[in-house]
C-alpha cells in the first residue's frame, strides 16, 4: 500500500509458507482435547429440550407435572417460569462487535410457535437419561395455524429484500434483456438447490454455570466466542464483562456455529432455574430441529455471447427462502457481480419467508449455490458455442471488477486455469459428450470456477514476551480444526525471531482481548495476522526503550530486526540483545502489549477475492445412474499460502462438502407440516471415504500486496464451483444436464 511501508514478511519465507503440523493435532488424536460437552464440572445437571411438533401456532396448555415427578428431575423450564430473556440482534457483518443470534425471537418468553422443532420447554435432571425420559412426559397442546413451509408453493410471493450483505439487492448494467435477445449464442435456464442442514462432526453443545455474583460462564461449541458473549449479555441484561464463553476445541462449524442458537440461551436459563451448572448437548436429531442450514434457491441464469465469444449479457436472478426471525437472504447474486466481463448485466434476488428454523451461514453461503447456477450455465453456453469451457472463461476474464469498477488487488484466475488444465490433462479430453466409456461406466470431465470474497475484521491481540525468552499470543480466536493457532504461531515466531517451540497461542476464551474475531467468512487468519503484526511492532518499540543505554542497541538510530531470540541492528551480525537479556537487565519478568488492527479499508479500494479452477472427473453407471467421482484437481489462487498442510486440508474439505452438496445432501421437509423428515445421518447423506477420490490441490502462491501476509482466505472457497464441476462432468459423461441438486441416481435414469 502506498501509505504504508511494505511488510517485511510479505515475501520472506521463514516458518510461514512451510507445512508445519497442527500444534493441537497431538492432543486431538490422543483424545486429550476437551470439547464443549466434555468439561467436568461439579454438580452438573443435564438438560433436554422439548421441541414443538407444529410449525405455526400457539401453545394453549403445557403440562409438565408428570415430568416433574419423574425420577431425578431437578427442574422444568417453560415460558411460565423462564427468566426474562430479551431478543438478540441478528447476524450482521456490519455489527460484528455486538454479537448476534441466528434468530431474533425471544427464547421461551411466550407461547408463539414459529417453526417445527422450536423449543417449548427444557427438562433438567441428574442424568441425561432421566432428562430424556422426563422430556417425553411433557404434554403440550397447541392451536395450529396454517404454516408456510413449501418453497415451491410460495416462491412466487417472494419480494426484494432491503439489502443483500449490505449491497443493493438488484443491479443492472445496460439493457441486458435486449442484448441477450440479440446475442449470437445463448442459454437461459433455471437451477435449483435444496434445503441443506449443518452436520458438523461435533453436535452443538453448551455447559452453563452462574456464580454467586450473577456472572455467567458458558462452554460452548462456537466459532465466535466474543459474539456469543455479547449476544448472551444482551439476552440476560448483563454487562459483557460478566459473561465468559470458552471454546478451546470445536469439532467443525462451517457457519452453523457462527451465531448464537437457542440451546445456548436455554442452557443458561436452565442453569439459572435449576440453580446448578447445566449441560445441554444436542442429539443429531435436535441439531436438525434447532439449528438451521442453507436456504433453498431457484436461480435463472441467462447468458448471451457475441460471435467472438465475448459475453453480451449475464442475467442471474432468483429466489431464496428465509424466515421472519432470521431475515437472511443467502447472497447467491453477489457472485456474478465479480467474475466475468460482460457488455450488460442484470443480477438480483428475491426472498420469501417460510415458517422454518432460521436459515444461516453454511460454508460459502451464496457463493456455493451461486456458482452452481452460474458455472453450470457457462458450461452449457460453451457447448452451444462449441468452444472449450476453459477458453470461454479466459475470453471473458475482466480487467477490472465488472460491477465495482475497481482494480483487483490480486487476481490470477487465468493462471490457475492454465496450471490446473495442464496438471489434470484437460487437453486430452474429447470435446463431445458421451464419448468415453469403460464397460457400464460413462466417463466425463467437467470444470468450473471457484470464487470467494476476501473479508477481514478489526482484531485485538495481546502479546507477552517473558524473561525466559518465550512469547504468548493471546486472542479470542476460534479453532475448529483449521490450523488457526498453528499459523499464528508460525507468524509470530517469524516476526519475533523466535524458534517455533518458544511461541504459543491462547485462544477460544472471550476473556482474552475483546474484538470481533470470528472463525467465519474465511476471515479469521487475516484478521488476527494484522493484529499480531501491530502488537509485535509495539512490543519491539517498548523493548528498545526498555533496553536503555546499557544495551548494544543503545543509540542505534538505524533499522532494528528481530532474529535469534532478540533484536539486532540490521546488517550487523552481533550488535543486539536477546529478549531474555533485555528483560532480565530491566528486572522484568515479562512485557505485555495489546494492539488492535485497523479497519480493512483495502476491501473498499480493491476487488478482493480468492479464485480457483475445479477440475472433476465423474463416472456414471448407465444402468443404475450411480455417480462416482473418480478424479479431482483443484487449482487455487488464494494469495500467499501460509501453511501448505493446513491450507490444502481446508481446500480439500471444502471440495468434499461440495461433493455432498452435489450428489447426496438434501433436507426433506414434510411440506404439509414443515417437519424435517430425515433428521439423521442415516437419512441425510454426507459423503463417506468411498465417495471421495484423492483430491489433488495446487495453488499459485502469488502474494497479494494488499492483505496481511499476502494471504487470502482458504476456508470456504473449496466448496464453490464444486457442484457445477460435478454437474458439468456428468453432462460430459452422459449428455444429461441436471439443474436440480442433489444429482441423485433417479435423475440420471
Ligand atoms: Mo463460514 S459459512 O462464514 O463459517
UniProtKB/TrEMBL annotation:
It comes from the Bacteria. It is an enzyme of class 1 (oxidoreductase). The keyword Protein biosynthesis does not apply. One of its GO terms (molecular function) is xanthine dehydrogenase activity. Keywords: Molybdenum, Oxidoreductase, Plasmid. Pfam families: Ald_Xan_dh_C, MoCoBD_1, MoCoBD_2. Residues 30-146 form the Aldehyde oxidase/xanthine dehydrogenase a/b hammerhead domain. The keyword Transcription does not apply. Its EC number is 1.17.1.4. This is Dehydrogenase. It comes from Rhizobium meliloti (strain 1021).
Amino acid at each position: 500500500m502506498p501509505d504504508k511501508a511494505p511488510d517485511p514478511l510479505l515475501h520472506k519465507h521463514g516458518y510461514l509458507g512451510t507445512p508445519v503440523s497442527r500444534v493441537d493435532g497431538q492432543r486431538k488424536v490422543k483424545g486429550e482435547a476437551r470439547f464443549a460437552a466434555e468439561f467436568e464440572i461439579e454438580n452438573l445437571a443435564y438438560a433436554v429440550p422439548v421441541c414443538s411438533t407444529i410449525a405455526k401456532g400457539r401453545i394453549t396448555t403445557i403440562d409438565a407435572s408428570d415430568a416433574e415427578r419423574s425420577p431425578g428431575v431437578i427442574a422444568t423450564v417453560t415460558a411460565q417460569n423462564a427468566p426474562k430473556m430479551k431478543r438478540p440482534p441478528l447476524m450482521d457483518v456490519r455489527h460484528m462487535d455486538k454479537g448476534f443470534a441466528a434468530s431474533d425471537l425471544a427464547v421461551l418468553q411466550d407461547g408463539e410457535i414459529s417453526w417445527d422443532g422450536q423449543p417449548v420447554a427444557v427438562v433438567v435432571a441428574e442424568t441425561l437419561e432421566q432428562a430424556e425420559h422426563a422430556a417425553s412426559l411433557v404434554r403440550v397442546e397447541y392451536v395450529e395455524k396454517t404454516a408456510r413451509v413449501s418453497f415451491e408453493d410460495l416462491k412466487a410471493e417472494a419480494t426484494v429484500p432491503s439489502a443483500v450483505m449490505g449491497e443493493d439487492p438488484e443491479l443492472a448494467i445496460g439493457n441486458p434483456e435486449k442484448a441477450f435477445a440479440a446475442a449470437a449464442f445463448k442459454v437461459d435456464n433455471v437451477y435449483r438447490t435444496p434445503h441443506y442442514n449443518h452436520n458438523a462432526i461435533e453436535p452443538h453443545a453448551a455447559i452453563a454455570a452462574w456464580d454467586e455474583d450473577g456472572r455467567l460462564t458458558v462452554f460452548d461449541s462456537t466459532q465466535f466466542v466474543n459474539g456469543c458473549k455479547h449476544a448472551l449479555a444482551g439476552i440476560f441484561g448483563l454487562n459483557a464483562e460478566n459473561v465468559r464463553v470458552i471454546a478451546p476445541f470445536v469439532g467443525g462449524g462451517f457457519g452453523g456455529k457462527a451465531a448464537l442458537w437457542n440451546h445456548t440461551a436455554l442452557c443458561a436459563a436452565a442453569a439459572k432455574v435449576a440453580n446448578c451448572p447445566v449441560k445441554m448437548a444436542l442429539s443429531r436429531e435436535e441439531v436438525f430441529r434447532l439449528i438451521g442450514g442453507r436456504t433453498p434457491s431457484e436461480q435463472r441464469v441467462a447468458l448471451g455471447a457475441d460471435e467472438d465469444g465475448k459475453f453480451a449479457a449475464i442475467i442471474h436472478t432468483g429466489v431464496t427462502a428465509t424466515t421472519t426471525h432470521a431475515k437472511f437472504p443467502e447472497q447467491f447474486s453477489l457472485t456474478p457481480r465479480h467474475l466475468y466481463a460482460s457488455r450488460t448485466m442484470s443480477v438480483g434476488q428475491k426472498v420469501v419467508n417460510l415458517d422454518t428454523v432460521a436459515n444461516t451461514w453454511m460454508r460459502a453461503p451464496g457463493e456455493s449455490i451461486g456458482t452452481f447456477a452460474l458455472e453450470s450455465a457457462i458450461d452449457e453456453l460453451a457447448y452451444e458455442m462449441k468452444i472449450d469451457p476453459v477458453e470461454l472463461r479466459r475470453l471473458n476474464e475482466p480487467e477490472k471488477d465488472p460491477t465495482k469498477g475497481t482494480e483487483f488487488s490480486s487476481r490470477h484466475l487465468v493462471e490457475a486455469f492454465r496450471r490446473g488444465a495442464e496438471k489434470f490433462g484437460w487437453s486430452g479430453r474429447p470435446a463431445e459428450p458421451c464419448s468415453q466409456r469403460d464397460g457400464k461406466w460413462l466417463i466425463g470431465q467437467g470444470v468450473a470456477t471457484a470464487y470467494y470474497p476476501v473479508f477481514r475484521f478489526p482484531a485485538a491481540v495481546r502479546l507477552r514476551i517473558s524473561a525466559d525468552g518465550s512469547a504468548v499470543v493471546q486472542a479470542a480466536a476460534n479453532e475448529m480444526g483449521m490450523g488457526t493457532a498453528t499459523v499464528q504461531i508460525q507468524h509470530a515466531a517469524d516476526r519475533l525471531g523466535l524458534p517455533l517451540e518458544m511461541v504459543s497461542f491462547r485462544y477460544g476464551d472471550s476473556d482474552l482481548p475483546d474484538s470481533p474475531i470470528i472463525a467465519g467468512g474465511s476471515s479469521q487468519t487475516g484478521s488476527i495476522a494484522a493484529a499480531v503484526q501491530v502488537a509485535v511492532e509495539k512490543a519491539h518499540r517498548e523493548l528498545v526503550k526498555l533496553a536503555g543505554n546499557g544495551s548494544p542497541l543503545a543509540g542505534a538510530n538505524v533499522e532494528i530486526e528481530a532474529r535469534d531470540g532478540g533484536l539486532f541492528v540490521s546488517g550487523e551480525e552481533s550488535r543486539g540483545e536477546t529478549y531474555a537479556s533485555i528483560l532480565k537487565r530491566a528486572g522484568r519478568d515479562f512485557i505485555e502489549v495489546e494492539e488492535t488492527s485497523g479497519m480493512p479499508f483495502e476491501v473498499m479500494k480493491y476487488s478482493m477475492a480468492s479464485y480457483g479452477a475445479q477440475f472433476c472427473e465423474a463416472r456414471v453407471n448407465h444402468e443404475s445412474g450411480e455417480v462416482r467421482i473418480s478424479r479431482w484437481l483443484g487449482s487455487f489462487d488464494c494469495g500467499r499460502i501460509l501453511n501448505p498442510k493446513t491450507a490444502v486440508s481446508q481446500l480439500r474439505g471444502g471440495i468434499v462438502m461440495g461433493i455432498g452438496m452435489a450428489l447426496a445432501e438434501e433436507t426433506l421437509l414434510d411440506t404439509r407440516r414443515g417437519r424435517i423428515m430425515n433428521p439423521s445421518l442415516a437419512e441425510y447423506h454426507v459423503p463417506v471415504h468411498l465417495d471421495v477420490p484423492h483430491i489433488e490441490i495446487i495453488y499459485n502462491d502469488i502474494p497479494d500486496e494488499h492483505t496481511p501476509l499476502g494471504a487470502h482466505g482458504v476456508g470456504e472457497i473449496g466448496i464453490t464451483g464444486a457442484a457445477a464441476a460435478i454437474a458439468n462432468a456428468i453432462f460430459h459423461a452422459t449428455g444429461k444436464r441436471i439443474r436440480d441438486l442433489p444429482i441423485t441416481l433417479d435423475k440420471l435414469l
